[in-house]
Design a protein that fits this description.
alpha+beta, conserved putative lor/sdh protein from methanococcus maripaludis s2 fold, Elongation Factor Tu (Ef-tu), domain 3, OB fold (Dihydrolipoamide Acetyltransferase, E2P), 4 domains, six-stranded antiparallel beta barrel, 4 helices, 19 strands
């Protein structure tokens, strides 16, 4: 009898345990808390100014450059400038020995005095013959000879005066002056050197550095857009990027002044020239630099490239957040890049919130928490 009650009690406990095990998972599932919505960083799209910039390699060239050369033969007796200094136009640079030319000038002046004295005597003789001719005291032939001699004396005076002028020019050339203002190079000759009028070696070189030119080359295909912009605006702003380890921008902006009117048949390129202020003489002829020519400025929607994913069909997709804070994919159409951002023409519009970071952990329709993206939204343009 006791065994029957014991067996019955054990059965009741067993059934109760089975009932609790069966009900346990369902109750635990109903009572478990849901996972929190992921947090993503979003960028609210607004139209941004976009500059159409063409970047071209360039080389610095001088505004003016003059090679100082001797005009007469002689020995350099003195130099009047410091090498590398700034010289003014008309400043004396060298002195060439002028003793020979001074002696020639004195001789020519003496010849002129002699020619004038001879002309004076012949003029008096001609005047006497004129008075005697009317009374037939002299023949017509004698008068004609006297007239010819007087005219010849006039010619000798002109020759002597021309000789003086020529020698005076040579004497002046013994003083070598600066033909332009600018920075002068080292002297290629020393005091005591013999120089000649036709020598190949220049005495020095003067370069005008402010302002200064930067010469560039643009392909024949790309020149059309640039020429249209020049015809519309007259000149175009140019920013120079220095070719050094820092790659910093040059302090002073320049202007595109010139575009060649023909395409080089060999290279298929067109020569361009920009002018830059150079008050500190930082830019030197021969330097390489990159010139950024700004063709136009317009407004467009910019999406960071890091916010996009490339699909197998080569399309670009971003994740956006709608008014219900749900993630939604959008396919973009772009018109190029602006720094590290895409210029978007379709797929999103102003006011849309684009997920920049955290889009990898969301699916379409996922509820998200948003925070503003703190990345840099302005980038330098490149073409």
């Amino acid at each position: 009898m006791i065994n029957k009650f014991l067996i019955a009690a054990l059965s009741v406990f067993a059934v109760a345990g089975c009932s609790q095990d069966a009900a346990g998972p369902s109750q635990q599932a109903q009572g478990a808390p849901q996972a929190p919505a992921p947090t993503v960083s979003v960028l609210t799209l607004t139209p941004q100014p976009v500059e159409n910039v063409v970047t071209l390699p360039g080389r610095v060239s001088p505004l003016r450059q003059s090679q100082v050369r001797p005009q007469v033969q002689g020995v350099i007796t003195k130099r009047f400038f410091e090498e590398g200094a700034y010289v003014e136009k008309g400043q004396q640079l060298y002195q060439i020995d002028d003793a020979r030319f001074a002696a020639q000038l004195a001789s020519a002046k003496a010849d002129l005095i002699s020619a004038k004295a001879n002309r004076k005597a012949l003029s008096a003789r001609l005047k006497r013959f004129e008075n005697l001719l009317s009374s037939e005291a002299v023949s017509q032939q004698e008068y004609d000879d006297a007239l010819a001699q007087a005219e010849q004396a006039d010619a000798q005076i002109s020759v002597a005066e021309a000789a003086i002028s020529s020698i005076q020019v040579d004497l002046d050339f013994t003083r070598v002056y600066a033909p332009i203002s600018g920075q002068i190079s080292r002297s290629f000759v020393t005091v005591g050197s013999l120089v000649t009028a036709n020598q190949a070696q220049q005495l020095a070189t003067i370069t005008a550095l402010d302002p200064i030119y930067v010469d560039m080359q643009q392909s024949g295909k790309g020149i059309l857009e640039l020429r249209r912009a020049m015809q519309k605006n007259g000149t175009l702003p140019v920013q120079l990027v220095l070719d050094d380890i820092t790659g910093e921008q040059y302090e002073y902006p320049g202007e595109l002044k010139f575009s060649e009117v023909t395409v080089d048949e060999t290279t298929g390129a067109v020569a361009l020239r920009a002018e830059f202020p150079n008050p500190d003489a930082l830019l030197m002829p021969g330097m390489y630099a990159k010139a950024e020519v700004r063709l136009s400025t317009s407004e467009a929607l910019l999406v960071p490239q890091r916010a996009t994913t490339r699909q197998p069909d080569n399309s670009l997709v971003v994740m956006t957040v709608n008014q219900q804070n749900e993630a939604q994919p959008r396919t973009l159409s772009i018109a190029g890049s602006f720094g590290d951002q895409y210029i978007v023409t379709a797929g999103v519009q102003a006011g849309d919130r684009v997920i920049v970071t955290g889009y990898q952990k969301v699916q379409p329709g996922t509820k998200v928490n948003t925070q503003p993206w703190q990345g840099t939204q302005q980038s330098q343009p490149r073409s």
